[in-house]
C-alpha cells in the first residue's frame, strides 16, 4: 500500500467541516498563529563550515477544528583541505513537513489525523512518509502550563538509500503498519520565558523511531524571541552503516505572527 494514495483521501475526509460548525466560528478565531525561526553559522580556518537551519510552525482554530502545520530543515556544508586541494562535502541534509487536523470531541478530548513527510540523507533514507489518525487528550490546560498527548495507528513508507557496502538483502522500499504516540508540553516558567518539550514515538515491527525536542524560548519584544533547543532522534534498527542516535543543539532567532 502506497502512502501517496492514502494521504489525499485522509486530508479530504478530515478537512471538510460541517456547515453547523462553520456557523459556530466566532470573530477572531480564523487567524493563523505561529512562528518562523532561523539559525546560521560559519567557520573559517583549517575547516570551513557553513550551517543553515529554519523552522516554521502555524496553527489555526476554526470552531471545533484545529489546523496545525510544521516544517523544518537543516543543511551543513564543510570544506577541508586534503593534499593541497579543497574538498567540499555535505555533512547534514534533512527536512520534514507535517500537517495535523484536530476535531474537538469533548471538553478535553479530540480526534486527529496526521500526515508527515521527511528526508534525512545521512540517516539512510531518501524519503519517509507517515499517514495516520487517532485520539488525543488535553491533560493540562492553563495560562502557565499546557500538556497534550495523542495516540493512534498509521502507515509508514520508507525509501532507503543504498549503503556503501554491498548487501544482497538490501530493500530499497518498505511499507509497514505503525503505532504513533506523541506528547506536547508548554510551560511558561516566568514572564517572557517559556519551556517547550515535544516527544514522539513511532513503532513498527522492523524499526521504531523516538524523537525528543526540548527548547527554551525567551521573548525580547512582542514578535521577536530567541530559542535554545536540544533534539535527540533514535532509531532502534538504523539503516546500514548509520548511527542509531543523532543529537543537535541549536540557537535560533524566532519571529512570531
UniProtKB/TrEMBL annotation:
Pfam families hit by this protein: DUF481 (PF04338)
UniProt entry tagged with the keyword Signal: yes
Keywords: Signal
Leader peptide range in chain numbering: 1-20
Protein name, UniProt field: DUF481 domain-containing protein
Amino acid at each position: 500500500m502506497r502512502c501517496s494514495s492514502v494521504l489525499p483521501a485522509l486530508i479530504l475526509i478530515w478537512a471538510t467541516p460541517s456547515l453547523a460548525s462553520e456557523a459556530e466560528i466566532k470573530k477572531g478565531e480564523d487567524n493563523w498563529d505561529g512562528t518562523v525561526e532561523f539559525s546560521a553559522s560559519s567557520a573559517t580556518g583549517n575547516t570551513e563550515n557553513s550551517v543553515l537551519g529554519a523552522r516554521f510552525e502555524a496553527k489555526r482554530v476554526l470552531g471545533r477544528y484545529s489546523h496545525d502545520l510544521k516544517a523544518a530543515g537543516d543543511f551543513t556544508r564543510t570544506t577541508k583541505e586534503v593534499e593541497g586541494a579543497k574538498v567540499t562535502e555535505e555533512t547534514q541534509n534533512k527536512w520534514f513537513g507535517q500537517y495535523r487536523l484536530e476535531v474537538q470531541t469533548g471538553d478535553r478530548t479530540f480526534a486527529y489525523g496526521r500526515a508527515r513527510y521527511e528526508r534525512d540523507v545521512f540517516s539512510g533514507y531518501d524519503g519517509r512518509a507517515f499517514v495516520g489518525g487517532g485520539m488525543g487528550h488535553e491533560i493540562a490546560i492553563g495560562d502557565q502550563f499546557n500538556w497534550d498527548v495523542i495516540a493512534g495507528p498509521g502507515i509508514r513508507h520508507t525509501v532507503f538509500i543504498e549503503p556503501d557496502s554491498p548487501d544482497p538483502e538490501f530493500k530499497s522500499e518498505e511499507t509497514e503498519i505503525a503505532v504513533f504516540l506523541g506528547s506536547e508540553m508548554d510551560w511558561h516558567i516566568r514572564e517572557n520565558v517559556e519551556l517547550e518539550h515535544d516527544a514522539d514515538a513511532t513503532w513498527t515491527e522492523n524499526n521504531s523511531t523516538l524523537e525528543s525536542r526540548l527548547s527554551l524560548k525567551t521573548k525580547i519584544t512582542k514578535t521577536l524571541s530567541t530559542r535554545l533547543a536540544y533534539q535527540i532522534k533514535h532509531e532502534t534498527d538504523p539503516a546500514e552503516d548509520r548511527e542509531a542516535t543523532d543529537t543537535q543543539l541549536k540557537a535560533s532567532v524566532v519571529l512570531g505572527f
